[in-house]
Amino acid sequence: MNYYFICAKNMDDINSLSLVYNKRKKIMKKIITLILPISLLMIACSSPSTDTQTQSETAPETETTATEESTETTTETETMATEENTAMVALVSPEEEIPMGDAELILEVKDSTSGETVPVENIEVSSTMPMEGEEPMISKVEIEPTETPGQFKVKTNFGMAGTWNLAAKVKDTKYQGENEIVVEVK
């Protein structure tokens, strides 16, 4: 706000300056009272941001089927793989129930047609827990290969009991594939 010092010769000059100032002040109040409701109305009527995604939009769009071998080796887990991939990732260990908290899992990459272990050098794994009405809970995952070719040690933390999804992707020049392993954490 700028202040100006004006020398007035008489009281009439002061009154006229005061009237001009009061008129400007009233006009500004009217403009603000008009702009504020209009801007709030525009914000309320605008479409939601495109940055927010629902859980169904972020889920991978793959057709999955359960495999017999993975359900035999994992009692509390269910493994699903896409039919068109050449390799899939299966949970080897632990076979018993998985407790809440820090967990160490062994994942194995297998040929999707023969079921044989495939000696790939790299996989990518993410661990998420779907949350009703919210974004999924994400857990940090550390992956390191074991001494057995095609097997990987995965360290993660299951922060809550319930259903967790391990999205696994084979990153190899010879074999490609991705699937989701569903684990029940107690």
Summarize the structure.
By secondary structure, this protein is an alpha+beta fold. The protein is built from three helices and ten strands, in the order H-H-E-H-E-E-E-E-E-E-E-E-E.
What's the arrangement of secondary structure elements?
Layout: H1 11-45, H2 55-58, E1 65-66, H3 68-73, E2 77-81, E3 87-93, E4 101-111, E5 123-129, E6 137-139, E7 141-145, E8 151-158, E9 162-171, E10 176-185
Antiparallel strand pairs: 1-2, 2-10, 3-4, 4-8, 5-6, 5-9, 7-8, 9-10
Textual characterization of the structure:
Pfam families: YtkA. It comes from Crocosphaera subtropica (strain ATCC 51142 / BH68) (Cyanothece sp. (strain ATCC 51142)). This is YtkA-like domain-containing protein. InterPro entries: YtkA-like_dom (IPR032693). With 186 residues, this protein is α+β, with helices and mostly antiparallel strands. It folds into 2 domains: 48 residues; 123 residues, Immunoglobulins (Immunoglobulin-like), CATH 2.60.40. Helix content is 24%, strand content 37%. The protein has 3 helices and 10 strands, in the order H-H-E-H-E-E-E-E-E-E-E-E-E. Strands 1-2-10-9-5-6 form a 6-stranded antiparallel sheet. The chain has a 4-stranded antiparallel sheet with strand order 3-4-8-7, with no helix packed on it. Strand 7 and strand 8 form a beta hairpin. The termini are far apart. About 19% of the residues have low confidence.
